[in-house]
Amino acid sequence: MSVNNTSQNGAVPARIAMLGGTFDPVHLGHLRSAVELLEMLSLDRVHLVPAHVPPHRQAPGVCAEQRLAMLAAGVGDTPGLIVDDRELQREGPSYSADSLASLREAYGGDARLVMVIGHDAFLKLDSWHRPERVFELAHVVVIDRPGHEAAMSASLRELIGQREVSTPHALFDSPAGGLLRIGLPTRLAISATAIRQRLKEGSSVRYLLPGAVEDYIQRQGLYQDP
Ligand code: ATP
User: Fold this and answer.
1) What pLDDT was estimated at residue 54?
2) pLDDT over 60 (residue 68)
3) Is 226 inside any structural domain?
4) In which domain, by residue range, is 32 found?
5) 7 inside domain
6) Nearest atom (ligand 1) to Cα of 33
7) C-alpha span between 107 and 148 (Å, rounded)
8) Which atom of ligand 1 is nearest to the CA of 184?
9) So what's the pLDDT on residue 154?
10) Which pTM was predicted?
């Protein structure tokens, strides 16, 4: 077992994260979390991966191409953040296990691959498509989300088993299979649901999402009642 997170040939393995979501629309809760994760876990990159067809929820009202365009507008040239359209290239439901498999193939077996999810999404992990496969391919890092503090169900606890570690160092000792729960410095109680609701009512969404995303929404007339 290595103690300094180096691979067998002595090179420091890449640390890559995937933050998947509907991004309907992307907001500062997503983007600030991604930047703080980059710093806190010393990641090389965070791939932001919009779902083409989210498997666990109603189809979004805004098409995948527009959600991707908003994500690209919001990310701009932020260092370390990658707008990743791999789920738009696949037909059928967008399973995270499939996206992690393609990232694993791209970065190789030594890379430290992390699937990032908010605590609300984590609470449903046991009902996902092939959750054990997720842990074969990646670590899971769960971020606190204000207003989503509920406890784990018995079946989620069973899925987690002995996987939980308490430090990034322990997590990155291996390429996949661990669980780390962390609180980021800036916890933002922002949700896409609340943003859609505000837009529908004609209320302001200023400073809840990047200005470029707000401009795109206004130009395209998204989320407003017809
Ligand atoms: P909705 O309100 O439509 O459900 P959302 O705001 O939860 O959307 P998603 O695109 O569903 O956004 O979220 C993608 C991922 O980002 C999920 O893992 C979710 O838990 C996480 N996330 C979303 N908003 C925040 C936030 N404010 N802070 C931390 N994590 C977040």
Assistant:
1) 67
2) yes
3) no
4) 15-220
5) no
6) 29
7) 33
8) 29
9) 94
10) 0.94
Total domain count, the chain: 1
Q: Kindly report the CATH number assigned to the domain that includes residue 167.
A: 3.40.50.620
Counting from 1 in the atom list of ligand 1, the atom nearest the Cα of 22 is 10
For ligand 1, atom 22, the nearest C-alpha belongs to 118
Token readout for 164 is 């939980």
In angstroms, what is the span from residue 30 Cα to ligand 1's centroid?
Answer: 6
On the question of pLDDT at 1 being above 50, the answer is: no
Does some domain include residue 8? Answer: no
Q: Give mean pLDDT, residues 120-148.
A: 93
Is 195 within a domain? yes
